[in-house]
Structure formats: structure tokens, C-alpha cells
Amino acid sequence: MAEYEVMAAFFLSELHQKYEENVTELGHIREIVEGIREDASKLKGLSGDSLSEAADGLEATAESVALRIKDVEDFLQFYLKDKNSVGVVLLERDAYMKINQILRWNKADVRELKRWINDLKEICVKLNRNPHDLMSFRRLPTIEMPEVAIKYPAWAMDKNGYCIVGPEYDEIMHIDEVMDAMEEGTNPFPVHPVSTHLA
Fold first, then answer.
1. Where is average pLDDT lowest: 23-27, 119-123, 176-180?
2. Which of 80, 153, 169, 181 is the most exposed place for a label (fewest CB within 10 A)?
3. pTM of this prediction?
4. Is cis: bond before 153, omega within 30 of 0?
């Protein structure tokens, strides 16, 4: 199978659903194996044709179980043998969880939000993705700010008036400092980044 086809099969699959199906299948296989063990213990009291028939039945069941185990093995080999592919899935999950955490920020301490945004940026570097492709930073939870502060740009403010500011969301300033800078015309970020950061 060509590399493109392999990658398409990997990323276009409902991987989580396939995982759950295989976990369920392993549970069924375990139950069958327990049944084989019980049947095997009954063989001790059999002889002649009865023993032969029971042995044939166990052999057929064991063959069926082996095939089902092979199907699970094929799933693991195809979808999870490539460490890079597994890493991508895990990183994408981490990105989703981090975005969810960011969007649920309680507006108590902007330093916490800044740390989470830095975490997301680091994950995105590993994924070779732009954070703005994954979320809109204008949707960050925030205490309401004056419109002029938003243009600074200030992206989010906590309950104590501290804001995440700048095009990289990596600086913290009090709202009073932001307002003073805007009034004095000393904004260090004269290029308004909103149009490029609304992805």
C-alpha cells in the first residue's frame, strides 16, 4: 500500500471507534477462552468418540479465537505501529484538551491563562500547526474590557485587571497600563494583528 493510502486510511478512520471495537472484541475473546478452559476440564471424564468430538470442538473454537486475535493484532499493527502517527494522535488530543482548558478559564488569574496558551503553542510546534488554525484568540474568556484596550491588543483580562497583551499573547500588563499606553500613543504593537489571528 502506498504511503499516501496508508496515511489516508489512518487519518480518515474513526480511530477512537475502532479502538473501542477492538477493546470490546478482546473482552469477547477472553470470555471464549474462559469457556475453552471449562470445556477442557470436562475432557478428563470423557473417552473414545466423545473425547474425540469434544477435542474437535475445542480445536475449532481455538482456531476461531486465533483468527479474531489476529484481527486485533492487525489493527494494532496498522494503526499504532508508527510511533509518529501515534504521536500525532496523542498530540492532537492534547491540543484539544488544552484548548478546552483555555476556553473554560475562570478569569481569576491571567498568569494561569498565559501558561496554558504557552502549553498550546508548544504542542502546535510539535504538530507543525499554527495555533490560530485551531482556535480564535478573540474568543478567550475575559472580564469585559474597554474597546480601546482590545485594540492594544489586549486579549483577555482577569478579575484583578491584569491582561494578556501583544501579538504573541506572551506579555501581562494591568489594564491601567494598557489604557495609559493607548492615551499616550506609546503602543509597542502598532500593527493590529486581529485580522491574522481570527482563524
1. 23-27
2. 80
3. 0.57
4. yes
Tell me which DSSP letter residue 107 carries: S
Cα(62)–Cα(77) distance, integer angstroms: 22
Higher pLDDT, 147 or 85: 147
Give residue-wise pLDDT tens across range 134-190.
Answer: 899 989 999 999 999 998 899 999 999 999 999 888 899 999 999 999 888 877 775
Phi–psi pair at 12, nearest 5 degrees: -95, 0
Q: 143, 154 in Cβ contact below 8 A?
A: no
HSE (side-chain half, CA atoms, 13 Å) at 55: 9
How far apart CA 199 and CA 53 sit, in angstroms, is: 68
Contacts of 15 (CB under 8 A, 6+ apart): 79, 89
Q: For the sheet containing 162-165, what is the strand order? A: 154-157, 162-165, 171-174
Q: What is the DSSP letter of 1?
A: -
Q: Which residues pair with residue 171 across a beta bridge? A: 165
Q: What is the DSSP string of 114-144?
A: HHHHHHHHHHHHHHT--HHHH--GGGS----
Tell me 51's DSSP state.
H
Contact 150, 158 (CB under 8 A): no
- The owner of cell 489604557 is 179
Q: Tell me the three cell numbers of residue 152.
A: 492594544
CA–CA separation, 41 and 114 (whole Å): 63
Reduced to 3 states (helix: H, G, I; strand: E, B; else coil), residue 162 is: strand
